[in-house]
Specification:
The protein is an alpha+beta fold and 452 residues long. The protein is built from 13 helices and 18 strands.
């Protein structure tokens, strides 16, 4: 059967159906030549700069879309180490195929094998840094905090995936997280990422094959200090390259969380030698010392744990850090903890304080005075709640509670309850009705006891 030779510009690929057992292909119109760039941008435009070069907004005339093109600066382009690092960045980023890591489209190599530029998805939006400016943190509502924390969780997912491939980012900070116009989240700038690190025990369960780069990707000498000191772990600030691992990124993520909570980095306005010295010692004030707004005690504790000086004292994986944040989101951001030594009277009958308590460790006993005699009501342990009536009424305490041994509790106040359950919520009428019934039942029991 003869086949008619077609103009190479004609394409016969669109399948329209089947006829007499054969496939019928429709002929498309000739492909047009590459389109000119739209009139609003005829030239590449610089949209960002880093230590090694610039990122340009450029137009792909074939696909007809805007892309980001990363290029090295002229002087660095001739420097072998800079060229090698640029190549490694493109290779690492291109192999980390994850929804929250910006995809690489193409790497351009010149005739001598040197990288010229690489292109990647152009992300339209803002960096996380714009959401955590001090003035914005001071005026944000709880809803915006929840949105930012969900961005943070997506960043954790991306970094955990990189760790499963043996890659440590080493420069995690709000400026390197892009939040797209439609909720997309991308971890950017893998320019100083360190490949070849051993994945954590947890991340190896579902680990993909290690990232492959030209050479071993380790382009610094021992003692080199590379990264952003405002978010840097002590081992990084000392230049101890052999100690760089997943927990180094855990520290940086804790520093990002600290910034989300307080509107400033852990080291504030320190610069130069003072900053580096503080980073080496992990001298970080508690968020309550630097923030004037309301803080979530649970999130403060999580951030401070992630930023502990010794690597073994931090969360050992990014996934462990993420789980703690998720637990705080589920359990109430604004709930603090309090510890009472054995023998402490935590609540006193007749008082009008408004706190309620959830026991997380230890035992308590509740009692009250009836007809001049002390009557034991119950013994409580982990998971039990007491003092709840006071949250929704101004009634005095109906019993005393004493710690039998050292007791740790989560504290719930009226203020924290209002944060978790808005005043207009349908839940509150049910809770108030329950409290009123408890009050009436208690009054009945007391009256019956007094008449015996």
């Amino acid at each position: 059967m003869k086949t008619k030779t077609e103009d190479p510009r004609q394409v016969e690929t669109r399948l329209s159906g089947e006829d007499s057992g054969g496939v019928v292909a429709e002929r498309s119109a000739p492909i047009k030549s590459a389109a000119a760039a739209p009139p609003d941008i005829a030239e590449d435009v610089v949209i960002g700069r880093g230590g090694m070069g610039a990122v340009l907004r450029t137009y792909d005339r074939n696909i007809r879309r805007y892309v980001a093109k990363k290029v090295t600066d002229g002087a660095l382009a001739a420097e072998p180490t800079a060229r090698a690092r640029f190549l490694v960045e493109a290779q690492i980023t291109g192999q980390l195929e994850h929804p929250h890591i910006v995809p690489v489209y193409d790497l351009n190599i010149d005739d001598e094998g040197a990288p010229k530029h690489f292109t990647m998805k152009l992300v339209e939006g803002e960096t996380l840094a714009s959401f955590v400016q001090p003035e914005r943190v001071a005026t944000r509502g709880e809803g915006e905090l929840w949105e930012i924390l969900n961005v943070f969780l997506k960043v954790c997912d991306a970094v955990a995936y990189a760790h499963s491939r043996g890659v440590v980012h080493r420069d995690l900070k709000p400026e390197n997280v892009m939040v797209g116009s439609y909720g997309q989240v991308y971890v950017m700038d893998w320019g100083i990422a360190r490949p070849g690190c051993a994945p954590s025990a947890e991340s190896t369960r579902d680990a993909a094959r290690p990232v492959s780069v030209d050479g071993d990707g380790r382009l610094e000498l021992h003692g080199a200090i590379i990264g952003t000191p405002l978010y840097m772990a002590p081992e990084q600030a000392w230049g101890h390259l052999d100690e760089i691992d997943a927990r180094t990124d855990v520290f940086a993520l804790g520093a990002v969380l600290y910034h989300v909570l307080t509107g400033r980095s852990p080291y504030g306005d320190l610069r130069g030698p003072e900053l580096l010295d503080a980073a080496r010692m992990a001298r970080i004030p508690h968020p309550s010392e630097v923030s004037t707004g309301p803080l979530s005690p649970a999130l403060c504790d999580i951030a401070m744990k992630a930023m502990r000086s010794a690597r073994e004292d931090r969360h050992q994986t990014v996934l462990a850090l993420k789980r703690d944040v998720e637990r705080a989101l589920r359990g109430g951001l604004w709930l603090g903890t309090q510890t009472f030594p054995a023998g402490t009277v935590i609540l006193r009958e007749g008082d009008t304080s408004d706190g309620a308590y959830l026991i997380t460790k230890g035992r308590c006993v509740a009692y009250r005075t009836e007809n001049g005699e002390v009557r034991k009501l119950s013994e409580m342990g982990e998971g039990d709640v007491f003092g709840e009536v006071a949250l929704l009424s101004s009634l005095p305490r109906i019993a005393s509670v004493v710690a039998v041994d050292d007791v740790t509790t989560i504290v719930v106040t009226k203020e924290t309850l209002e944060r978790e359950i808005p005043a207009e919520s349908w839940v509150l009428p049910f809770l108030r009705a329950l409290v009123e019934r408890i009050r009436k039942l208690d009054a009945t029991i007391r009256q019956e006891g007094a008449t015996r």
